[in-house]
Amino acid sequence: MMRTAVHYRMWIGGQWMDSETGETITVINPANGELVGSVPKGGRTETEQAVRAAEQAFPVWSGLTAADRGSYLKKWAEEIRREREPLARLLTFEQGKPLSEALEEVDAAADFSEWYGEEAKRVTGEILAGSKPKQRILVIRQPVGVAALITPWNYPATMVTRKMAAALAAGCTVVLKPASQTPLTAVFLMQLLEKTGLPPGVANLVTGAASEIGRALMENRSVRKISFTGSTEVGKQLIQSSAGQVKRLSLELGGNAPLIVFSDAEVDRAVKAAVGNKFENCGQMCNGINVIYVHERLVEEFLQQLTERVRSLRVGFGWEPGTQIGPVIDEAGREKVAELVRDAVMRGARVLTGGRLLTDGQLANGTFYAPTVLSDVTYDMRVTQEEIFGPVAPVVSFSDEEEILKRVNDTPYGLAAYFFTRDIQKAFMAAERLEFGMVAVNGTSLSVPQAPFGGIKESGQGREGGHYGMEEFLNIKYISMNL
């Protein structure tokens, strides 16, 4: 599908603008290599300008009632729903996912904004008993100040509203830096936010080089909080950089999530859920299943059903009806997937379906990889140790349920884990013993507005979603009143 490329601009202090240098970044459709649009290549100058705008807007915004702040967020949700289809189509063009998935993401983005529009009214404090007759102790929560939000390319709509709505509800003003691969969705969302009448400077958008903008945000003392979703490697760099100012961080980092299918599981149910999670967004999901561990009594049946389902998945352009799998985000991502599969095969894994680049016909100019199932996978293979971030499902057979829990916990990551069982005692035991920030029992879906999304260990710190997500943008102040 041919589409006219559009140049989008940054939003700073209530004004749409280009970069000081006039340089731009092009956005390429990963499905066909065509130009989707461009954005300004902003840098330190624009970032500092955005921070100043947010700092100047903070007293007015934080001084509004919670109900007033929430009203803007609920209006934003209405605008997102009104522009649901064009927003989803743009998302598909720049990110590659099927339009059906893009529509679901846009719906979720609106849900987060609406939910925090209501949650804004629920920031509470405490009155504690004093230690002296005339002492009164108050505990209040206040917004941290200017917050910088750095969002990823895999969910360019939901990640914006999940962070921004929580920050705005708390009373913070924000500077948003979207991923360079997918900035257009963020610009569209900010255009919709502008329609709500949001005061200038409350929300600002800077596009450009991640490293330069990131340094400017980290070094600026007016930025009191940074929320980042991305790789563990970059997250560690942010932690090191934050030490100089003891800057508050929320980090949602790498996953490497396991799925365990215990001996008493319903195979049909487990297979359906596994495919729904593993191949969503072409496997590019931070809490996506990385490796599937199946009890030896069920592994043959599981592999048969899994292979049949995966083989039937339709790969193609996201805007075409019926497409279920789009491209990997770029050539570097596809090559990593191919390299991990080559390593597994070299070490003895069998490819039951897929296992190859898709380069024929209309897919020739895109970065497509065939949905893949690997059997006979062993622990020395890189697919069991590294985050795949692609449409590959490695399956490991196990016999000892106690041992498999120890095995999946033996990782530096701890974002999400999934398992299937019909034994309620086993369900509670496994859920409590798995060393992950999120655990799903007999299901593989986790992200909802009211629940705390986030990991432990090297998968991050802090939470997004629920009242926990808003608390990330609040300071606790203790006031001692002596009468």
UniProtKB/TrEMBL annotation:
Gene3D superfamilies: Aldehyde Dehydrogenase, Chain A, domain 1 (3.40.605.10), Aldehyde Dehydrogenase, Chain A, domain 2 (3.40.309.10)
Keyword hit for Oxidoreductase: yes
Keywords: Oxidoreductase
GO MF annotations, alphabetized: oxidoreductase activity, acting on the aldehyde or oxo group of donors, NAD or NADP as acceptor
Annotated InterPro entries: Ald_DH/histidinol_DH, Ald_DH_C, Ald_DH_CS_CYS, Ald_DH_CS_GLU, Ald_DH_N, Aldehyde_DH_dom, Aldehyde_DH_Superfamily
Active-site residues from the entry: E252
Domain Aldehyde dehydrogenase: 16-479
Statement: the UniProt record of this protein carries the keyword Oxidoreductase: yes
Similarity comment: family membership: Belongs to the aldehyde dehydrogenase family.
Listed name of the protein: Succinate-semialdehyde dehydrogenase / glutarate-semialdehyde dehydrogenase
